[in-house]
Write a structure and sequence with these properties.
It is a single chain. This protein has helices at 18-29, 34-46, 92-102, 110-119, 130-142, 153-161, 166-171, 235-241, 243-252, 257-269, and strands at residues 10-14, 68-74, 79-86, 107-109, 182-187, 193-199, 220-223, 227-233, 279-284, 290-294, 301-305, 310-312. The protein is an alpha+beta fold. The strands form two sheets. An eight-stranded mixed beta sheet has the order 4-3-2-6-5-1-11-12. The chain starts with 9 loop residues before the first strand and ends with a strand. The structure holds glycine. Glycine (GLY) binds at residues 181, 199, 201-202, 211-213, 219, 232-235.
């Protein structure tokens, strides 16, 4: 740390993170911390009504309720905070940070997280929008179901979340991605790393379903000594093989970033994932190397450096 290369700010993000990354990079260039940068970047995506996979206007669960999951981690002391299945509050990432900084816990869920948000003075806000509810109703219609069906809700959620054909997913313009999530990982001028992940989770999920995003080790992990990783995609896969922590452990054991990513993908590919269930990983090392890995072709990620170099990867 301390040399020019290691103090160059660097960020990597999932491909829906462009606006957040631009604002966060400006903060990093001014000497802001990696933790502030990833929180800011996430909040911008959470507030975006046109992103239906994160925060405000996220896709609802099978009951038409928006439940948000998020986590944040800093790599110097390995502190982390997370919330899951939160209703009625946006900016889940800020709530996750407040769990980390203002409680003795790492993960607070559902009613407890909502109580905490109220105690901390966060402003409640309806997370559903006309558009997200329209998509929810449309999904029922596509499956020839109706909201409030007499079927057990688990059967309804199974029908609604059954993956669509992967070719359709990749090629049908405007198709809603029910697995969206946003990832940001940053290195600041001091060489500290931080990572943040936020999502409304799998669209049309069973109420209370929690994915990988708020689970430290599954969808998010950060350690200044070895690197950080974060995931988008079908959270159940990353949970089963602890993807983010595994990639960072592979780095710890001396693998290159490319080899560590390949090994994390190999773990995922051993699972019996149905067609349409995929996983993407973004990663950053303490030296500022970035990479993205995916179990499906055609997925991109974004990175930007303090010297202005930027790219979709
Ligand atoms: N990766 C987001 C989720 O599965 O909820």
């Amino acid at each position: 740390m301390g040399d020019i290369a290691s103090s160059m700010p660097v960020m990597v993000a999932s491909e829906n993170g462009r606006r957040g990354m631009l604002a966060a990079m400006a903060l990093l260039r001014e000497g802001g911390s990696a933790l502030d940068a990833v929180e800011l970047a996430c909040r911008i995506v959470e507030d975006d009504p046109d992103d239906h996979s994160v925060g405000y206007s996220g896709l609802p669960n099978a009951l038409g309720e928006v439940e948000l999951d998020a986590s944040i981690m800093e790599g110097t002391m390995l502190r982390a905070g997370a919330v899951a299945a939160v209703q009625g509050y946006g900016r889940a990432i800020t709530l996750a940070r407040r769990v980390m900084e203002e409680t003795p816990h790492v993960l607070v869920v559902a009613r407890g997280a909502e109580r905490l948000a109220a105690e901390l003075g966060e402003t409640p806000q309806e997370q559903r929008t006309e558009e997200s509810l329209r998509r929810w109703r449309e999904r029922f219609a596509e499956r020839e179901l109706t909201p409030g069906d007499a079927e057990p809700l688990r059967s309804v959620a199974r029908a609604l979340t059954r993956p669509i054909n992967l070719q359709d997913k990749l090629h049908k313009a405007g198709r809603v991605d029910t697995l969206g999530t946003v990832n940001f990982i940053a290195r600041d001028r001091r060489g500290a790393l931080a990572s943040a992940v936020s999502t409304s989770g799998l669209g049309w999920k069973y109420p209370g379903r929690v994915g990988d995003s708020p689970l430290i080790g599954a969808g998010n992990y950060c350690d200044d000594r070895y690197g950080a990783a974060a995931c988008t995609g079908m959270g159940e896969l990353a949970i089963r093989v602890a993807t983010a922590r595994s990639l960072v452990l592979y780095l710890k054991f001396g693998m290159s970033l490319a080899a560590a990513g390949r090994e994390a993908l190999r773990d995922l590919l051993t699972l019996d994932a149905p067609d349409g269930q995929y996983m993407n990983i973004v990663a950053l090392t303490p030296a500022g190397e970035v990479a993205g890995f995916t179990t499906v072709p055609g997925k991109r990620y974004l990175y930007q450096r303090g010297d202005g170099r930027a790219s979709p990867g």
